[in-house]
């Protein structure tokens, strides 16, 4: 695994390459995605069937075949090994408990002059969840996207997932049953995003689309934003690790590979203050690679997008990591909580030797749908509020408008909005 040092003469150029890790060129696929969206808008189900035949390699004979039968979800759930079912329920309960703590409340405030101001929080009517199913199926992503919507109180949840060769992952079906999903469809990629954004004869139009996907899914979400709300535009998975001389190189190496095995485009970056840890970890990465079932994917990711950076001190290491703003950040130091106040930008922060990133993927409780490609500088993890909207509440008494009305009308005058000003002053004059 490549090791670089902040003292290297060309370190700045090498670090710029790391920062550009997720600069996938949306422009390159925008025209393709635009044509897919236009086709769905114009031809609806017929376009979906053609896209499925082209990309997922099976022929849809009828509109009914697009939908996954809830009976198949229950059958898959009933067939689960009892240990796997228990693990699925444990994950569900922990994710639900965590997200229930995020629920904002409606509120009202009363002023002395009789003004009532407040905020009303309501869920969207219908949420669309995109669940990947190409190179790998991720039932955990179904839990992470469906549960916040359930907690928010969304009445109708629509799921879309690609089904290559018309095969649906059994654990995904079981997870759908556990989450009470009744509307799930066998469509993926940009086609699924377009179908949920605009609606077809079979797939209903939604209000918000969430969930991870490849460059085509990310581009489609960007293009339909405004027609619907979206959670974020996420790219390939990534991990950052801060370590000092106390860290265990075996842990560091396998944790770096835990993201590399996702995707050739995934990035794994460690910044350490210890030369010895850097070298030992690099060797351990090579050793572990030989044991992985997805070795070729992980190796390409490590070779092309992995790096170990040796920093001169922990403050420098943290500054560099804040620039990277990783999706997942592990802090493997002697006292990780001591560093927490200095960490500004990360999707999820994993503190200590016993908190590997996969704990967050499955069982801890916080959401694993996270901002990537440095967007943690301004995006948050998927959460309950992605499925909620807020309405302002305003009620003025006669005393309140008499007290504040002229100031309001004056501001309207200065903007040249005569009707605005007069709509206030007619009340001040008490005209009937």
UniProtKB/TrEMBL annotation:
Catalytic machinery residues: 327 (proton acceptor), 328 (proton acceptor)
Catalytic reactions on record: L-histidinol + 2 NAD(+) + H2O = L-histidine + 2 NADH + 3 H(+)
KW Zinc (keyword) present: yes
GO cellular component entries: cytosol
Listed GO biological process terms: L-histidine biosynthetic process
Keyword tags: Amino-acid biosynthesis, Histidine biosynthesis, Metal-binding, NAD, Oxidoreductase, Zinc
Molecular functions per Gene Ontology: histidinol dehydrogenase activity; NAD binding; zinc ion binding
Pfam families (alphabetical): Histidinol_dh (PF00815)
EC id: 1.1.1.23
Cofactor(s), names only, from the UniProt record: Zn(2+)
Amino acids binding Zn(2+): 259, 262, 361, 420
Enzyme class: oxidoreductase
Binding site for substrate: 237, 259, 262, 328, 361, 415, 420
Pathway: Amino-acid biosynthesis; L-histidine biosynthesis; L-histidine from 5-phospho-alpha-D-ribose 1-diphosphate: step 9/9
Cofactor binding note from Swiss-Prot or TrEMBL: Binds 1 zinc ion per subunit.
Annotated function: Catalyzes the sequential NAD-dependent oxidations of L-histidinol to L-histidinaldehyde and then to L-histidine.
NCBIfam families: hisD
Family: Belongs to the histidinol dehydrogenase family.
Protein name (record): Histidinol dehydrogenase
Species the sequence originates in: Candidatus Marinarcus aquaticus
């Amino acid at each position: 695994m490549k090791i670089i040092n902040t003292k290297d003469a060309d370190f700045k150029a090498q670090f710029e390459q790391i920062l550009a890790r997720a600069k996938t060129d949306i422009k390159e696929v925008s025209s393709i995605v635009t044509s897919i969206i236009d086709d769905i808008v114009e031809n609806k189900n017929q376009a979906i069937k053609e896209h499925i035949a082209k990309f997922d390699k099976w022929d849809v004979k009828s509109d009914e075949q697009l939908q996954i039968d809830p009976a198949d979800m229950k059958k898959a759930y009933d067939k689960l090994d009892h240990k796997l079912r228990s693990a699925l329920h444990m994950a569900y309960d922990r994710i639900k408990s965590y997200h229930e703590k995020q629920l904002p409340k409606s509120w009202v405030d009363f002023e002395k002059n009789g003004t009532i101001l407040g905020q009303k929080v309501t869920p969207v009517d219908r949420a669309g969840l995109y669940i990947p199913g190409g190179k790998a199926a991720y039932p955990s992503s179904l839990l992470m996207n469906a549960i916040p919507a359930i907690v928010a109180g969304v009445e109708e949840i629509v799921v879309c997932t690609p089904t290559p060769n018309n095969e649906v992952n059994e654990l995904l079906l079981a997870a759908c049953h556990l989450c009470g999903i009744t509307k799930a469809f066998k469509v993926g990629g940009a086609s699924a995003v377009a179908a949920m954004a605009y609606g077809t004869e079979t797939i209903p139009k939604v209000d918000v689309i969430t969930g991870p996907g490849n460059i085509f899914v990310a581009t489609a979400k960007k293009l339909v934003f405004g027609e619907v709300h979206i959670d974020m535009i996420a790219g390939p998975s990534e991990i950052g690790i801060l370590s000092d001389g106390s860290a265990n190189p075996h842990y560091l190496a396998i944790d770096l590979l835990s993201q590399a095995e996702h995707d050739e485009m995934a990035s794994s970056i460690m910044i350490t203050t210890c030369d010895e840890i850097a070298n030992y970890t690099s060797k351990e990465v090579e050793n572990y690679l030989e044991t992985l079932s997805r070795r070729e994917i992980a190796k390409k990711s490590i070779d092309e997008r992995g790096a170990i950076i040796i920093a001169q001190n922990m403050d420098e290491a943290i500054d560099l990591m804040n620039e990277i703003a990783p999706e997942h950040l592990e802090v493997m130091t002697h006292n990780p909580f001591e560093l927490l106040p200095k960490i500004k930008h990360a999707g999820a922060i994993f503190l200590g030797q016993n908190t590997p990133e996969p704990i967050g993927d499955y069982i801890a409780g916080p959401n694993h749908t996270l901002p990537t490609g440095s967007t943690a500088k301004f995006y948050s993890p998927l959460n309950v509020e992605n499925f909620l909207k807020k309405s302002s509440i305003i009620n003025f008494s006669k005393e309140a408008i008499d007290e504040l009305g002229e100031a309001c009308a004056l501001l309207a005058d200065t903007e040249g909005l005569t009707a605005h000003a007069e709509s206030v002053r007619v009340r001040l004059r008490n005209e009937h």
